[in-house]
Amino acid sequence: MGLLVAVIFLYPRWVEKGRQKVARRPLSPQWRAILEQRVAPYGQLTADQRQRLHEQMQVLLAEKQYLGCNKLAVTEEMRVTVAAIASLLLLQDQGNYFPKLKLLPQAQNHPALPQYLLGDRNRPH
After folding, report:
1. Domain residues of the chain, as ranges?
2. Nearest one of 99, 101, 35, 38 to 66, comparing CA atoms
3. CA dist., res. 103 & res. 82, Å (int)
4. CATH topology of domain 2-118
5. How is residue 10 annotated by DSSP?
6. What share of the chain is helix, strand, coil (3-state, %, to 5)?
């Protein structure tokens, strides 16, 4: 019984420590290029916001499984782009990571998804 209580008490701390270690990993030049090309709001972030975005992306990319629906093959570019957009939503609320992310093949052309989030340079300012 004591072991169970210890596990329940220590598990969140263990997870947070692991997340901190993952978040400190430097972002690869390839991933930075993807952010600059595909995530339009990235260029408007402050240096501090970019750093937090990078940290949160590292955690999402390490912890979450990215599954394509309807036989969609999820590429590295898709994973990085989705993690970046999800991390934009987390910039003001650190630590609450999404339980599941699903990519649908038709999402790229879905009218409800602002195309500027997918890298359209004709985005609103």
Report:
1. 2-118
2. 101
3. 9
4. Cyclin A; domain 1 (1.10.472)
5. H
6. 60, 5, 35
Classify strands 101-103 and 66-68 as parallel, antiparallel or unpaired: parallel
Q: How far is it, in rounded angstroms, from Cα 55 to Cα 113?
A: 25
Helix (H, G, I), strand (E, B) or coil at 28: coil
Distance CA 52, CA 67 (A): 25
Instruction: Determine if the pTM surpasses 0.85.
Output: no
In DSSP terms, which residues pair with 102 in a beta bridge? 67
Residue position matching structure tokens 């090309």? 37
> What is the pLDDT tens value at each position of the chain, 125 positions in all?
677 766 677 766 766 787 788 778 899 999 999 999 999 889 999 999 999 999 999 988 888 888 888 788 889 999 999 999 989 888 876 555 555 555 555 555 555 555 544 444 444 44
Amino acid occupying residue 33? A
Query: Alpha-carbon distance 42 to 35, whole Å?
Result: 6
